[in-house]
Amino acid sequence: MPRAPSSTPIPKATAVFRRAGGILRTQEAKAAGIHPRTLAALVEDGTVLRLDRGVYQLADAAPSEPDLAVVARKVPKAILCLVSALAHHRLTTQIPHAVNLAVPRGFKDRKLEHPPVRFYRFGDASLAAGVERIKVGGRELRVYGAAKTVADCFKFRNKIGQDIAIEALRAYLRRKDAKVKDLMHFARLNRVQAVMAPYLDVLLAAKC
Q1: Kind and range of the H or E element at 159?
Q2: Whole-prediction pTM value?
């Protein structure tokens, strides 16, 4: 059974995890003074959970979205997009089977033990547009805003399904803060304004 060097490091290590938002990577824990044997002891007694290779979470400080917390640490340059972003904004009834991440062209895919991830290549202009920042497990994660995400779904409709894009558009237009000009701005950026416009006109007419 793994043993900590002494009883004193345990509460100190727990405090380090709490200050970090409940999740640490192995190198972060080591840099903060947590000995590998202490970390192993914390896992052994259930105080800390191993989420993925090299990613650990304080058991009683679980973030509301642990999958996203892992992604924020292991793929920090990626941006939450498409169905995963729709789920974040509550614009879909779909349950993502993998975390959808936007990356630049030329990015080399990475495989995580958990959660499953799927990468989508975005052009430079689209990749940088409409990005928002949220905190997950004490770490910043970038995610596309609601209007940008809807436009992205029309851009990638052949990959995720056009029905998901239309559902997202309908859900977005029901929001009190919905802005048609924002939708069309991002649709033009993604060159899908001609595709989205007929659906937008029908749904807007139905609201009148």
Answers
A1: helix 157-160
A2: 0.72
